[in-house]
Amino acid sequence: MSMNAQLRRIPAADADRARRDTDFRTQLTMGAFGAGFDSAELMSSLPWYLRLLLRLTQPGMPKSSPTAKAAPPPGELLDLHKSWHGIHWLLCQDPWEGPVPLKHTLFGKEEIGEDLGYGPARLNSPSEVLEVEKALRALSDAELMRRYDPQKMDELEIYPGNFADDRSWRSDLKRDYNRLRKFYQDAAAQGDAVLTWLD
């Protein structure tokens, strides 16, 4: 089982809803895997006799609706896969903490909701997104990668490990850092909040 970091841009108007509405927050944190799930569509794919049996025994089951589609969650999703911890260490030079606002880049500032398996989701408000974006803009990918120390990262047990033996990590981290910078640049330009979580 691996730990992957997900970030989702959400309109500023949806930030309060994400704090208080569990169903909405669940929709946001389903990630790419669950974004298109629709129980009505699943029902329509079953043979008629199974649909009838389910409706008789489970009154709450939806009727089949081949045209029904779940609405995708709002906002762009960025999946950093396993690069997240390496990028955090390169940004902050610390496994879990670091200077504000850089430490909020991947671990968000405000904890919201229930534990998702590796802790709750965390939220950066639009003003915090602006601060993070400004800090990332000031740190070039070349400067970030000068901090790359695979032996030290392995000693500190930076996830997922094996940095010293796998030379591809250097290019992967640089690529994903640039994706992260672009993500925050776009979020800041639109006045969005950013939700972060591990799954």
Kindly report the name of the CATH homologous superfamily of the largest domain. YfbM-like super family
**What would you say the CATH architecture of the largest domain is?**
3-Layer(aba) Sandwich
**Major sheet: arrangement of strands:** 2-1-5-4-3
Structural class: alpha+beta
Q: Overall 3D geometry?
A: globular
Note the beta-strand portion: 5-15%
- Specify the helix fraction band: 40-55%
Oligomer: single chain
**In sequence order, what are the helices and strands, one letter per element?**
EHHHHHEHHEEHHHHE
Number of domains: 2
Number of strands: 5
Radius of gyration based on Cα positions: 20 Å
Number of helices: 11
Note the main sheet.
5 strands, antiparallel
Distance between the termini: 10 Å
What is the CATH topology descriptor of the largest domain? Hypothetical protein yfbM fold
Low-pLDDT windows of residues = 32-39, 64-70
- Average predicted local confidence, pLDDT: 87
Give the key terms.
Hypothetical protein yfbM fold, globular, 47% helix, 199 residues, 2 domains, alpha+beta
Topology record:
Blueprint: E1 5-10, H1 15-20, H2 22-29, H3 31-34, H4 39-44, H5 48-57, E2 77-81, H6 84-92, H7 104-107, E3 110-112, E4 121-124, H8 126-137, H9 141-145, H10 150-155, H11 168-190, E5 193-198
Antiparallel strand pairs: 1-2, 1-5, 3-4, 4-5
Description of the molecule:
With 199 residues, the protein is of the alpha+beta class. The chain has 2 domains: 5-35 and 75-198, YfbM-like super family (Hypothetical protein yfbM fold), CATH 3.40.1760.10; 36-71, no CATH class. The protein is built from 11 helices and 5 strands. The chain has a 5-stranded antiparallel β-sheet. Strand 3 and strand 4 form a beta hairpin. Helix 8 crosses helix 11 (168-190). The longest helix is centred in the last third of the chain and has 23 residues, at 168-190. The termini are close together.
